[in-house]
Amino acid sequence: MLEKDIQEILLTDEQIQEKAKELGAVLSQEYADKFPLAIGILKGAMPFMSDLMKHVDAYVEMDYMDVSSYGNATVSSGEVKIVKDLNTSIEGRDIIIVEDIIDSGKTLSYLIDLFKYRKAKSIKIVTLLDKPSGRKVPLEADYVGFLVPDAFVVGYGLDYAERYRNLPYVGVLKKEVYSF
Ligand SMILES: O=P(O)(O)OC[C@H]1O[C@H](OP(=O)(O)OP(=O)(O)O)[C@H](O)[C@@H]1O
Ligand SMILES: [Mg+2]
């Protein structure tokens, strides 16, 4: 039913699961002798955080922050709103930010400033998707799953107007769904 709104599937469930395994193995090595705090950025990063963490073999703590800047639009409002803050103090902690996508870069550049202000010891970013063509502020992730083209993508956590997060794959949304 949902598939009728999808122009093209970019990444299958299998490709995403394989990538979660790969990135989990890298993080396991990197944090083997540390006690990092992984922070999933809701709502979009929920499925990726859950799949990725299953493959991290280290003493990792998890917390979530809910931030939003897109609302029902396909371009960032530029205003990053904290809907729910962390439960954990991050002072002196090694932070792993887990994101679904970096597009304009505004969400993460806001969060990095905030986490530095809160005196995190180190901050690394792992993102499933990176859309370099969308960048409005300079920002690079430490670990990137896949690059995506200049198109609005949905699925596997990513929404348009709160829909399509439950698709098991990542696909390009048909333009007629959001431009009328
Ligand atoms: O690099 P940017 O242009 O800031 O875009 C990336 C952010 O936008 C989306 O979140 P959104 O604000 O839509 O909230 P959601 O995760 O609840 O959908 C996505 O999940 C990222 O957090
Ligand atoms: Mg969204």
TrEMBL record:
It is found in: Cytoplasm. The keyword Metal-binding applies. Residues 14-160 form the Phosphoribosyltransferase domain. Keywords: Cytoplasm, Glycosyltransferase, Magnesium, Metal-binding, Nucleotide-binding, Purine salvage, Transferase. It comes from the Bacteria. Its EC number is 2.4.2.8. Pfam families: Pribosyltran. Its cofactor is Mg(2+). It is an enzyme of class 2 (transferase). One of its GO terms (molecular function) is glycosyltransferase activity. Its main location: cytoplasm. CDD domains: PRTases_typeI. Pathway: Purine metabolism; GMP biosynthesis via salvage pathway; GMP from guanine: step 1/1; Purine metabolism; IMP biosynthesis via salvage pathway; IMP from hypoxanthine: step 1/1. It catalyses: IMP + diphosphate = hypoxanthine + 5-phospho-alpha-D-ribose 1-diphosphate; GMP + diphosphate = guanine + 5-phospho-alpha-D-ribose 1-diphosphate. Belongs to the purine/pyrimidine phosphoribosyltransferase family. Purine salvage pathway enzyme that catalyzes the transfer of the ribosyl-5-phosphate group from 5-phospho-alpha-D-ribose 1-diphosphate (PRPP) to the N9 position of the 6-oxopurines hypoxanthine and guanine to form the corresponding ribonucleotides IMP (inosine 5'-monophosphate) and GMP (guanosine 5'-monophosphate), with the release of PPi. This is Hypoxanthine phosphoribosyltransferase. It comes from Chryseomicrobium palamuruense.
